[in-house]
Fold this protein.
Amino acid sequence: MDAANPLQQLLLRGLGTTTLVADRLRGVSQAWVSSGRLDPSEASALVDDVMKALRGETPELEQQAGRNLERNRDNLLQDIGVPSQREVDELRGRIDRLEQQLRQLNKID
């Protein structure tokens, strides 16, 4: 390993950390299986799920996080008084109807 290459060092440390977490998770899940707190099939599924999450292979979790972020953003905007797109669209429709009524009234006069 080239000591002058910080990117390479970071990558290798990340791989080492991931391996350490995987080994520790396997050990803990096996201890839970031995003590009867976890079914063997559940233990392997748990290890697989955590490893997928560590590798970034969980699109459903990313989608859920994205939905939560959008919901929090929407709530924040609502709390500070920014209208939603639906509200703006409704107001535009009302304005269009009022302008149309005004034009019709001006034609009558």
Summary: The helical segments are 6-35, 40-55, 59-79, 85-108. The longest helix spans residues 6-35.
